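Forum: Protein Structure Q&A
Topic: Joint prediction for protein chains with partners

I've read a bunch of threads here and the consensus seems to be that you should model interacting components together rather than docking separate models afterwards. I'd like to see that in practice. Below is the full input, 830 residues plus whatever partners are listed. Could one of the regulars post the assembled result?
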Amino acid sequence: MTINVSDARPVVVQKYGGSSLADAEHIHNVAARIQLRRDDGVDVIVVVSAMGDSTDELISLSEAVAGGTQPDAREMDTLLSTGELVSSTLMAMALKARGCDSISLSGIQAGIKTDAVHGSARIADINTDRIRTELDKGRIVIVAGFQGLAESGDITTLGRGGSDTTAVALAVAVDAERCEIYTDVDGIYTTDPRLTDKARKLSEIGFDEMLEMAVLGAKMNPRSIELGAVYDMPVYVASSFSSEPGTLIHGGEQTMEVRKAVTGIAVDSNVAKITVRGVVDRPGVAAGLLKPLADEGVSVDVIVQNTSSDGTTDFTFTVGQASVVKAAQLIEDQSVIEYAEVITGSNLAKVSIVGTGMENAPGYAARMFSTLSEAKVNIDMITTSEIRITTIIDREQVQKAVQSLHDAFELEKSQ
Amino acid sequence: MTINVSDARPVVVQKYGGSSLADAEHIHNVAARIQLRRDDGVDVIVVVSAMGDSTDELISLSEAVAGGTQPDAREMDTLLSTGELVSSTLMAMALKARGCDSISLSGIQAGIKTDAVHGSARIADINTDRIRTELDKGRIVIVAGFQGLAESGDITTLGRGGSDTTAVALAVAVDAERCEIYTDVDGIYTTDPRLTDKARKLSEIGFDEMLEMAVLGAKMNPRSIELGAVYDMPVYVASSFSSEPGTLIHGGEQTMEVRKAVTGIAVDSNVAKITVRGVVDRPGVAAGLLKPLADEGVSVDVIVQNTSSDGTTDFTFTVGQASVVKAAQLIEDQSVIEYAEVITGSNLAKVSIVGTGMENAPGYAARMFSTLSEAKVNIDMITTSEIRITTIIDREQVQKAVQSLHDAFELEKSQ
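Posted by a regular:
Agreed with the consensus. Here's the joint model:
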């Protein structure tokens, strides 16, 4: 990534999602916000997603045309890239109508170069010359998100949530002060507000914690958070519909020490498990069992294998609810790994406490488990990372679990 | 324009308009036609317009966003170019779904370079390398019509009907056998079939005649016909909804001699006239009267000025019905040319007989005027070109005029 340190005015990159750009009136409202931000005395680059449901409409059209076949990935990328071209040009027009000089740039024109993996391309490099030229003319630069150019001259897209990635990558490339993601949620919460009315919006969160929390609240693409973390580019998440303060995701050195150990509770209610019992315990078991699933595109989440006792072990993993029947069948169809039986369990949920503070402080796991025990929540499986403790429980007990944990770790209080 | 004469298979360029691509089913039907054409043993390049009304929908969106201001022409071009990107990628998908290898190319990818006049750019050059490469892979190449790339890296569009221009220019650049324009009319007729049921579809017509007839039948862009004429690229116009033979527009040397002198009758029923009486006859009168109209974007069609008698003359010109009040006002407001009075006349029509054969054969004007006289059609004004005789008459008399002329010149009979 080319970093241009310039002695120009400070630059801010803003990104607006599709629900913020649903129609001409929404576009006008966002244009007014962009103008206000520019009046702060900063240069503004705006990354836009496609308007409202337009991407889904293009996907439906492609399915109708492909008539049951898989639409070609290269054609799909060019097709979908048009959604952001439409919203970026309209936004430039709306700003001009407000008397703000502005120009739209496609991914190509913005110098965004990617690899050639259609549908989930990765940004390889950004040539910011054109963006710099336009900023130097005093213009607000509107960049079509989600898209780039492969070396072949073909248009690529970055996958769902790709406009977030475009925004953070551009912020890094132009050495912006920060990247602001405006969306239809107003920040990152300690847990899903639908589960407890004590859920509190965080004013800040570390990148590592945010990655663990990513299934929560803000529909943020984990890739954009990783990119922010790697290049230490602060990412601010807030609502595009209000002026309420949002959440700053950042490297976190300044305030980390005085913060609580547990930052939030992440919840995923779409979990099923498959237990393979009586597996002969030898090297290659996990790989042998999971390869058929990978080949068929079944995503595996939590994986637990206990120490073996009698030379055999039980191997358990979780998948999305919709994949459990297919996954069990694939295990039964494979003939590489011997086992006694396959047992499936559905209607489960994953509840995790997340916080960088846990890394160096003991007792959080114990407190989590005793809290759940007192709430009579049965724990089915446990896994941990350095800054996260995850339990798999019955889906019916999610609300009880979240409320008791939110209370136990006093997440309603800011610190 | 780069002409690549290759020893590859013969190439045909086809163009399909928006009404032929209105939805997924239409796209499938067109894909089947393209596949059939390819099965003839030719390489096929297909130029597509935007689907159905999608261009008009984008224009409406831009007007809503621009809120009364004029949408920026550069932004407008990028916005409108998305319509053809959508239809071209969908067409490539539909062909693949039929087992036909195919690839879509944007104007940029197809190597179409234009000048920088947004909204009505002219093609400067076409680099056909990518198209050749894809054809050599056995692919059907689908090119997004109507668009190109300016040297600045900005996307341009060629104006209304620009996809026809793209198709003919590509046919010239790849040295195609011919360019086939498929549309919602099935060819070029001797006159508007709504005016006489004797109107006959022409199997062929010369470029010059077609230019004079351009207001008729096929909604063809005169620029594409001019381009075909300059490079002697035969253009075949036919329906995309049937397999009826259409009309071949060509240089015409092969069959011209045995053809009738009069090929067709062109009609324009949207005519008003303005007569400026008592103009002092001196150099600069026409320019002085018409400059204010040009400055205000009022298009003037027929212009007639008779030899002066007493040092003053009458100057008459026609405009579209909608412009007549404005045009008269502009004449009255100007102070450069002195005149006696301005008289306007509305509800007129222009009826012309067209044919290259008239050029070297006398008597056609006389026969036209006597035919109209016998039909009791009063002629208000007359102008002629080498291959056309035009009369301005009352709009109410158009049908009578066309029917009597169609009979008099025996246009119902093919020759």
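DSSP finds eleven helices and 18 strands in chain B.
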